[in-house]
Every structure is written in C-alpha cells, then in structure tokens.
Amino acid sequence: KALRKAVIAGNWKMNKTRPEAKALIEDLKPLVANAACDVVICVPYTNLETALDLTKGTNIKVGAENCHWAASGAFTAEISAGMLTEMGVEYVIIGHSERRQYFGETDVTVNKRVRAALDAGMKVILCVGELLEQREQGITEEICGLQTKIALQGVTKEELKNIIIAYEPVWAIGTGKTATSDQANEVNGTIRSVVEKLYDKAAADALTVQYGGSMNAANAEELLGKEHVDGGLIGGASLKAPDFAAIVAAAS
Ligand code: PEP
C-alpha cells in the first residue's frame, strides 16, 4: 500500500450548472490544498473549461466522465479523447456502471474507449463492479475479473501506469448502501491479483485500486484504511465541498 498513491476522485455525474460548478470549486480549493493524496474532479463536459480555469495552479486535477473511441467522425454528441486533451483535461472515467446500465456500454466498448484515452495520453479511471444479483449468485469475483481483463486487452505494462481501477459494486452506487470495508478490500485484492496474472507483481503492486459506492465522510476512513483500497471514486458526496474534503482528508 505504501507503494501506491491514494487518489480521491469526484464524479459529479449530470450535476452542476457553470455558476454552481464555480462555487463548488472555489469552496473546495482551500479545503483540499494540503491533501497528501491526489485529488481529481470529473465533471460534465459543459464544466470542463470552468474547472480547468479555476484549478490552474492548484492541486486539483480535472477529468471528464467518458470519451469516445474514435478520434473524430460521424458520432453525434460524442466527445473524443483528443478533444479533451487539447483542452488540458488529464483524466477520464471509462465504463461507469451508469454508462453500462443506461447507455449500452459493454466490456468491448469500454476496452475501445480505454485504448483511445491511453492513445491520447490520458489517465483512465476504469470502473468495474457487479450487480446485486451477481453478488447473490456468488460470481462477484468472476464478473469483476472478466470486466478487468476485457477492459485491459491490448494495454501494455507501461500504459498500465496511466490506469486506475475503481471497484464499484452497482448495488452500492447512489443507494446509501456501502460495501463493508472487508468486502471492498476483498474485491480490490482480487482485481489486483487479476492484474498480477496479466502483467506481473510489480505492476499489480503499483496499481491504484479505488473503491466507489456511497463512500462518505463517515465511512471513508474505515474503507481507505484497508490494504487494497487505495482511494475512492465519489459520486453524491463529491457535490458538497466539506463532504468531499473530509474524504480527501481521510485519505491523507
Ligand atoms: C459513482 O457514481 O461513482 C459513485 C460512487 O456514486 P455514489 O458515491 O453516489 O454512490
């Protein structure tokens, strides 16, 4: 764990107008200025320019919530990784469960988007996680392992340095139901061992594996204290500066 930098990333989802984004970022800046972990905010496309402007010279990094796999073309309403990097956006979330659930994202398209983001020089927050029925069927580790393997197809060991994996049990996202710290640690550890088999121990040991799913100021310390939990991907609690800052503090 000491080998890995903790990363706390906010996922704003489809929230915040530009004035609201500005207020949140201004509130957040002083609260996380002394963070010992990396701090990322992933914001709607419409807020990227605002976020980049307001975080210049600070320790807050900016990410998008998705990107397309093609460099350009007839893909109405999509945004390419190159469009993001040209703006200065460093991070991108790929394969969030809401994309998988509501927008037809598959393991194969996740892999294509991961490839495109890496080719553009971005850092990827790759989300994997099981549905409630899959956990009940006892296939959590297989599902998360398979999602990880397919998403990483064609990714070299060198490129893996630009990947963070976020374990996000779908039943815990936005539900207020958090995985226990032992459940999170167990699956994060499984993901790390899958990565070890695909690459090697050094690569797996260096990989940041986050937990996401109703992480908040009250439960962050317990979750982040676990061996394989190297940070968090935060939805709801990233929308309020004091809540997000408390999670950042718990990771520091
Ligand atoms: C997420 O969407 O990545 C997430 C973890 O959401 P929440 O924290 O609201 O459960």
From TrEMBL:
Pfam families: TIM (PF00121). It is found in: Cytoplasm. HAMAP family: TIM_B. Keywords: Cytoplasm, Gluconeogenesis, Glycolysis, Isomerase. It comes from the Bacteria. Involved in the gluconeogenesis. Catalyzes stereospecifically the conversion of dihydroxyacetone phosphate (DHAP) to D-glyceraldehyde-3-phosphate (G3P). SUPFAM superfamilies: Triosephosphate isomerase (TIM). Its EC number is 5.3.1.1. Substrate binds at residues 11-13, 174, 214, 235-236. One of its GO terms (cellular component) is cytosol. PROSITE patterns: TIM_1, TIM_2. This is Triosephosphate isomerase. The keyword Isomerase applies. It comes from Hydrogenoanaerobacterium saccharovorans. GO terms for molecular function: triose-phosphate isomerase activity. Pathway: Carbohydrate biosynthesis; gluconeogenesis; Carbohydrate degradation; glycolysis; D-glyceraldehyde 3-phosphate from glycerone phosphate: step 1/1. GO terms for biological process: gluconeogenesis; glyceraldehyde-3-phosphate biosynthetic process; glycerol catabolic process; glycolytic process. Homodimer. Belongs to the triosephosphate isomerase family. InterPro entries: Aldolase_TIM, TIM_sf, TrioseP_Isoase_bac/euk, Triosephosphate_isomerase, Triosephosphate_isomerase_AS. It catalyses: D-glyceraldehyde 3-phosphate = dihydroxyacetone phosphate. The lineage of its organism: Bacteria, Bacillati, Bacillota, Clostridia, Eubacteriales. It is an enzyme of class 5 (isomerase). The gene is tpiA. The active site is at residues 96, 168.
